[in-house]
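Objective 1b of the project was to move from sequence-level analysis to a structural picture of ligand recognition. The entry below was assembled by the postdoctoral researcher (A.K.) and checked by the PI before modelling. It contains the amino acid sequence of the target and the SMILES of the bound compound, S-adenosylmethionine.
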Amino acid sequence: MSINSAFLDYFRQEFFLDNEIEFEAFTKSLLRPLKKTMRINTNKQPLDTFMSNKTAVGWKFGKTPNGHVFHVDREDTSIALGSNPEHLRGDFYIQELSASMSVWLMSEGQVHTEPFHILEMASSPGGKTTQIAEHYPNAFIFANEFNKERIVPLLENIERMGLTNIAVTNMNGVQFRDLPNRFDLVLLDAPCSWEGIGYKAAESLKYWNIKNVKTIARLQKKLLHAGLVALKPGGTLVYSTCTLNHIENEEVLASAKEEFGDQIEITFSKRFWPHTEIAGGFFVAKIEKKFTETVSEEVSKGYRPNTDISLLEDRSLGMVEDALERLGTNLPHNTQLYRYKNDILLTRFTSDINSLLKELYIIRFGMRIGRIEGNNFEPLPPLGVHFEHTKLLKYEIAKEELKEFLRWLSVPVTLEHAWLIQVYWNGAPLGFGNIQKGVLQSGLPKYMFWK
Ligand SMILES: C[S@@+](CC[C@H](N)C(=O)[O-])C[C@H]1O[C@@H](n2cnc3c(N)ncnc32)[C@H](O)[C@@H]1O
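Corresponding predicted holo structure:
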């Protein structure tokens, strides 16, 4: 696929006027496929444990500038990386190196234990949301996504990575301008014109036009304005795009500076060029909010906050706890149970959350681990993937059986009947299953289906 000549003219003019050789290197790099990179889910296991287990079966890891992200080469590639059982149960996330840099820079590569409230304004499919949860395991993260269709992959990825400290909201990010000074950290990984991802979406370079770039920049400015209002004084906002032009990057930052003046300081910015970084094209900047000049009047919100989520209490709590006791469920000590209609939601304990809950349009809060049906607690698939249940029969699945099990096909076993068992793969839970008439059947989440 070709690159649009208006795109080439813009970049030659803006960035490479004196350097034709570099311009050629840049244009050649734009459509070049990238080597696969993956981020290891440190909430599930330490980096070393994952890497030594996989090195033993022929995986080779190469270091990158992000200490949690590795190039990966495998001797046996008959199974796609994304279909590996370790991927399906959330041990790792396939994430492009440049895309991993906004959260890496936000956290300065550290794991922070503070109970921050963090907002990600534009989150689907969740690469950065789930990465934030690794660097801020005790924070509560509000992952917002405007596009209803893109909510599904976001929910799946959060569930796949086993996270309980995330609420997903479905709002226009611009609406956060009505919630001043609420969040300690904000990430705006903005919708953009995709100039940096020609390696997977060549059409963005074929159909590029400046009018489209300017239209997106108008939305980016509004989103950045809203994010800076919602950020607490003393907090940091990270702005990133997977695009390279000035209009969606420096010009968006300049408009915020013009508007907020001394209230903000842009402390860092970097453009990741695909020809020098050997990664996707990307731009990232850090903005510190020094103080708030005026707290804007709280205006009536253009959406209906969701007020039906409440802590699970009294009889229902007792019933769920008894059911979990019967399964021998080991839930982490720092979690608590909430209820939304009949759904039972496991969330990481966090203080000061209730007022925020009542202000946002939340469509998922924590992990959906079960449902109340009449007087019974019915466990749901994520409970089997992410937690051990010591009173359930444990079945370590063999390599030859794995394909059938992950395809929802019947696996013959020696046992006749078991209502609920926990299937293990390589010593760690893979999910629930049940046995009927000597046949093991899957109780895994649908997105774990092996394509
Ligand atoms: C670059 S993508 C986000 C990628 C994501 N942060 C990740 O790392 O996986 C930008 C997202 O912004 C969403 N979006 C577009 N307009 C929006 C708006 N007004 N408010 C919030 N999100 C919006 C798009 O649907 C898209 O999912």
